[in-house]
Amino acid sequence: MRILLQRVSRASVRVNGEIVGEIAHGLTAFVGVHGSDTAETASWMAQKVVNCRIFEDEMGKMNRSLLETGGSVLVISQFTLYGELVKGTRPSFMAAAAPEHAEALYKSFLGELIEKIGIARVAAGVFRATMQVELVNEGPVTILLER
Q: For 53, phi and psi rounded to 5 degrees?
C-alpha cells in the first residue's frame, strides 16, 4: 500500500460537480493498493497516518500527530500511485490491485481511520470515480508512506 500524505489547511473532493468530501485542517491521504496488500496492511497504514508527527508544536517543530491536533483526514483512492514508467512513456499499473481487492482494502483503511479518530473527522472520495480534488498544502508538507 502506498499513501501520499499532504498536510492541508483545507481540502475537498468533487464527483460530477458535487462535493462528496471536505475537511478543514488535517491531512489528505491519496491511497494506492498493491495486489499483495492485506487487511493487516490497511490497519498498519491507518495507525501510521493518525500517529504521523507532521504538525507543528508550540516551538514550531513537526512534533504533533493528527490525534493530538484534532485534525481530519480526506481519503482519496488513487491506483495511479502504482504507475511505473520503466519502459516507454505510457505508465503500467500492473502492480496495482484489481478493483475488487483494492476497494475492499480501501474500505478497510477507511474503517480503521474511523475507529481511531471518529467518523466526523474522516471524509472520502468515491472509489473508481473520476474526482476533482482541491487542497491547500500547508508547509508544504508531503510524505510518502509505503508498506
A: -90, 85
